[in-house]
Automatic annotation (TrEMBL):
Residues 278-556 form the Sulfatase N-terminal domain. Keywords: Cell membrane, Membrane, Transmembrane, Transmembrane helix. This is Phosphoglycerol transferase MdoB-like AlkP superfamily enzyme. SUPFAM superfamilies: Alkaline phosphatase-like. The keyword Cell inner membrane does not apply. InterPro entries: Alkaline_phosphatase_core_sf, LtaS-like, OpgB/LTA_synthase_biosynth, Sulfatase_N. The chain crosses the membrane at residues 18-39, 59-84, 96-116, 148-166, 178-201. CDD domains: LTA_synthase. The lineage of its organism: Bacteria, Pseudomonadati, Bacteroidota, Cytophagia, Cytophagales.
Amino acid sequence: MSSYSVASGFGWRIHQVLLIRLLGIMILFTVCRILFYFFNQSFFPDVSLALAPRLFLGGLRFDLVAVLYTNILYVFLTLIPVTFKYRPAFQKFLDYLFIFTNSIALLANCADFIYYRFTIKRSTWSVLQEFSHENNMHKLFGGFLVNYWYVALVWVLLVMAVVYLTRRWRIGAKPLRPAWQIFLVHSVLMTVAVFLFIGGVKGGFRHSTRPITLSNAGEYVDKPKEMFIVLNTPFCIYKTLKSSDYQRADFFKSEQEMNAVYSPIHHPDPNAPAFRPKNVVILIWESFGKEMVGTFNRDLENGTYKGYTPFIDSLMQHSKVHWYSFANGAKSIEAIPSVLTSIPGIMEPFILTRYTDNKLPSLPEMLQAKGYHTSFFHGAPNGSMGFKAFTNLIGIKDYYGKTEYNNDADYDGIWGIWDEEFLQFWSKKLDTFQQPFMSTLFTVSSHDPYKVPARYQGKFPKGPLPIYECMGYTDNALRRFFESAKNKPWFKNTLFVITADHAATFAHYPKYQTSVGNFSIPILFYAPDDDTMTGTDSSRLVQQIDVMPSVLSYLHYDKPYFSFGKNVFGNPPLNFAVNYDGAYQWFNGPYVLQFDGRKTVGLYKYQEDKLLKNNLAGRVPEVQGPMELQVKAFIQQYSNRMLDDRLTVTP
């Protein structure tokens, strides 16, 4: 152990210890980056030996910012030009402060070794807000420790390294100098340190340099999703503390010019028949990615792939199916606004922004005005994910959760009521509602730790990933729901919509490991008494935010309304989809444009180039130019309307 009982000079050692300790934490952050890549390598198939040094060296810039922010109090208390900082009790306090703050920062990095698979991006401040709605955090955290014990072990080893670093490098005794000399010299050194600190957290020393943010990671990558290797989790959390404020966009100088490219205002078809009050039943299936469905994957395993959802495969034969269908987000809490209000989560989940107090478009409210009964079902503990609060905000009349189910014998112990039992509960409740009704259910069982009820052990194929067995279970639960519903008086007068909250948390096959595959989900429209609602459409794209305008069109809704999505049953002016994966992904027909908010970083013909190997950016201007205008129009409409509270049709 290195420390001094007698000190000479002006106490330079205190600054040496500070620099060495901070350098040690920088090294541990790099270790975390290596482990993050190792645990999530399948998400970054294009990272080569030539690219890796650029990613990891670029990450040092973001690590420096995170380390300085994490240690801001420790640095200040170490540098203040006073002599009491040499007292043993104060030094012990600084040691504990250094160990505690850096252990928390390393914990955040370690958590994303696994949590990244669930969100396809580094965790931000919104994650803490998201989990603040959970009242079973002890079970979730306990389950995480059990299932991912090796990550907890890695964190313990990292903390031990911090403790060793702290004990190995200590400050020692007060210098044998008059206090005024120490004050003078240390004041100068603190001034220099403050200058260096500001430059470090800002990302540079030029006057024109703006503080670096998440998008700056794009300088070091070939593809947007590789930004999450460059970034670290503490940096992402610190930089999103005030992320609920959007920047006003000014790509277009006039509203008319922008609306000519893309407009979220929808007008009714004057030639449409009268409104038809059919029931609307929407099922949002947890982690229901396209990879699980055999019909979507006839090319896999030399044409022998059957998938894990045989009931969905059979239902697709009687449904309207769009071959290219996408989620607008990668989190469960992004699905509800996307499906029920046609508001996608851009950069951050809409539920967690301050703009939820805007006047919102709402499919339930619009149908309620037409005499519909509205309800929402979620088998989790009431209040989970903030769903109860948000569904109340958008005017849904009745909420049914674990409390209303009122039978803990069917509780899975972590997430909620098993899907089979809760879907039967839903079916029985639908019998009691006066028609027409609109009802939405969000499933829970196909979620980590991927368990099925004991009575179903060994019944469903397991496959290469544990989630597949759970998908087979929920698919069977859905089959039983339809078996119980098909003879009900309301069944044939109903439009069913089946979709996912997001794609699977991680994928097995390469085409689902890309930034396009990560968002590929099924979206089915099934109307038992309507033969026109069948067949597969491979030309028109569909996304979650299209559900609301498409349902309204199918019902012949007769009023203008606001929707960021499009009506897939009509003739939309743009054949588009949008999501965010470190950059905006703007789909138009067979192409996807990746736009970082300022410039295009990728352009792919994704329907042919399924692994996104051939970047066409700058090579097909006749495609790239119009798509850039479209995504800019979307960004400006989205950001400015959020800021101005203009998310509805002005009377």
